[in-house]
Amino acid sequence: MKKEKKSKRILVIGTGGTIAGKGDNFKTSDYTAAQIKIEDLVNEVCENTIHDNMDTIDYFNIDSCDMTSEKLIKLSNYINKVSESEDYYGFVITHGTDTLEETAYFLNLTVKTQKPVVITGAMRPHTALGADGPMNLYQAISLAKSEDAINKGVLVVFSDTIYSARDVSKINTFKPAAFGQKDLGCLGYMRDENVFFYNSPTKKHTIYSEFDISYLENLPKVEIVMFYPSADIKILDYVSKDCDGIVLAGAGCGNVSTSWSEKVKKIISSGIPVVRSSRIANGVVTYNEKTIHEKGIFAENLSPLKSRILLSLALTKSTNLEEIQKFFLEY
Ligand code: ASP
Q1: What's the pLDDT at 6?
Q2: Which residues are known catalytic residues?
Q3: Residue 225 forms beta bridges with which residues?
Q4: Which contiguous run of DSSP H or E holds residue 169?
Q5: What is the rounded average pLDDT of the residues 116-142?
Q6: Which residues line ligand 1 (CB under 6 A)?
């Protein structure tokens, strides 16, 4: 395979997940995540393709369900440190798919670089027949070397498709095409190493973001509570005893029952900000500045999962409801 003469230098940061998973009998289902070193995965991709000049680090070796706020802060601060001190053209992060969307959005809001930052993973372990990891990793490296990926915020590559960190969601529990941007489609496609962008993120990200986590070890505690008919109101009592903010996954346009509405109003007046998002995949929970002290801050089109990330960062800057609402309109 012909290599580029002086290939752009890329750092691949492994965090574990199924892309580094091992199982028996070539199966896609029985396996353990986070077993293979990122160096081995990258070497394999480099041996067989155009890529070289790659550094690797096993930053975490976890199933992404074990990701925590402390780990997110460490990862983001690490990327900020190396992007200043080293001459990397771009960064690739390999990650478990289960919570990839939360990590992607957190990095999108806290990484301070215009360089390409691309996250990928796999739905099938490395030992499966038809493992999707090698192609996803190959395409993530290709995207991290692309000029077109500069200043686009954190990007996710999965199954030949480029997504924005803000809008990407996991949409399938086991198929290789496991991610999507719902109504918003995607940012572009990849065919082998070739990059095709059609859309750009419109919300603030990376160097345009005002969130600074360099001095933090943990984040304010934000919990998500889902509403459904006859949901026990005691859930709200329980959660509000030990948190800094609440995200409601409401019905329809962020709605809850009459009794929940009363409780939410009390929680807000006790000083705990509540964000109203929706359990519906598409659409906007519309903004009404007159009711944020009664009904809560409106999540715009952010999912409950993404709203939790933004509210926890917003709370590092302010507990004022109007100011937090502004963040939800801008990010
Ligand atoms: N449980 C795995 C993880 O999120 C799933 C995956 O990577 O696909 O780490």
Answers
A1: 60
A2: 18
A3: 248
A4: strand 169-170
A5: 97
A6: 17-18, 33, 63-65, 96-98, 121, 123
Looking only at the bridges linking them, the beta strands covering 117-120 and 155-158 are: parallel
Ligand 1 atom at minimum distance from 100 CA = 4
Mean pLDDT of the 172-176 span = 98
* CA atoms of 252 and 254, how far apart (whole Å): 5
Alpha-carbon torsion 325, 64, 156, 175, what sign?
negative
Tokens for 95, please give them: 């990650």
Residue identified by tokens 């719902």 is 182
Distance CA 79, CA 58 (A): 13
User: Phi, psi at residue 280, to the nearest 5°?
Assistant: -85, 140
* Cα–Cα dist 112/208, whole Å: 8
Question: Encoding tokens for residue 85?
Answer: 């001190």
* 38 touches 140 (CB < 8 A): no
Task: At 46, list the tokens.
Answer: 């480099």
pLDDT band of residue 3 (cuts 50, 70, 90) is low
* Mean pLDDT, residues 227-240: 97
What distance in Å separates the CA atoms of residue 260 and residue 175, rounded to the nearest whole number? 37
Model pLDDT, residue 24:
86
Mean pLDDT of the chain: 96
Extract the tokens encoding 279.
Answer: 């359990």
H or E element, residue 58: strand 54-62
- Stated as kind and residue range, the H or E segment containing 15 is strand 10-16
Q: Running DSSP on this structure, what letter comes out for residue 291?
A: G
Task: Please give the distance, rounded to the nearest whole angstrom, from the Cα atom of residue 295 to the centre of ligand 1.
Answer: 35
Q: Residue 17 to residues 38, 87, 120: CA-CA distances in angstroms?
A: 11, 27, 10
